[in-house]
Fold this protein.
Amino acid sequence: MPAVEVLLANPRGFCAGVERAIEIVERALQRCGAPIYVRHEIVHNRSVVERLRAMGAVFVEELAQVPEGATVVFSAHGVSKAVRAEAARRGLRVFDATCPLVTKVHAEVAKMLAAGYEIVMIGHRGHPEAEGTVGQAERGITLVETEDEVAQLVPRDPQRLAYVTQTTLSVDDAARIVGALRARFPAIRGPKRDDICYATQNRQEAVKAIAARCEVVIVVGSPNSSNSNRLREVAESAGARAYRVDSAAELRPEWIAGARTVGVSAGASAPEVLVQEVVSRLEALGARGVRELPGITEHVVFTLPRELARSRS
């Protein structure tokens, strides 16, 4: 087998919203003690969820599973207004780990609805972020996933139509759907700033850069991680054979057979330790050089909820 060089995408892995969400759960456990209930997985990564579960976090899908008077954390993906109302009605203590960039989309939705616009939400059906955004209103928001669904839209008034997007979409896919919307509804209004988050965009650009230099790209991320799945698709679209793995144990030797260069990246919810384990696995399979490519340095930091910001171990 020829010597394989490993190229590490930069940036990769945790973003500011993920780091904030994980820290909120950790600090809530320190402040309130176990168990802390978390509605939905705090972020979409099995390793992260298992570590927090071992610390005393209990992950539930619905608030009905949370006992009266307990403490609950809303995941980074955000929740609907109905979920917030239910938590308030039941007197649950809430720490909100919604990513501030998702909160920004919710604020855009509120402004657009207040101005009398009907809204098209571009996102993945069944994803908790999309459900939370659509759930910002009882009506007036329609979810679309594809250009074909755009062709089927029948708005009340095409002159009063706006769109928002899920923050973890493929930039290229979202651009195509936005293009279809603008072609069909020229008056459609978009957000003042792109809804797709900085981390998603940066990681996709970094993967494009390594895919152009590699025969194979390995993306570290869990199966339910939207941004990790998008990274694999971006690498494949750029011409590389691309695979997503939850851990190094899933990496198959035949994937890299005959390759001279293998790229490695990670979704925004995947910890760096998993990346290093994949690199070690590649080295065990014959890789002889590991090189990190230059890339954007991210300086974004999101503040914690005030009550938890005072709670330091």
In short: The first helix runs from residue 16 to 32. Residues 41 and 277 are 23 Å apart (CA to CA). The chain has a mean pLDDT of 95.
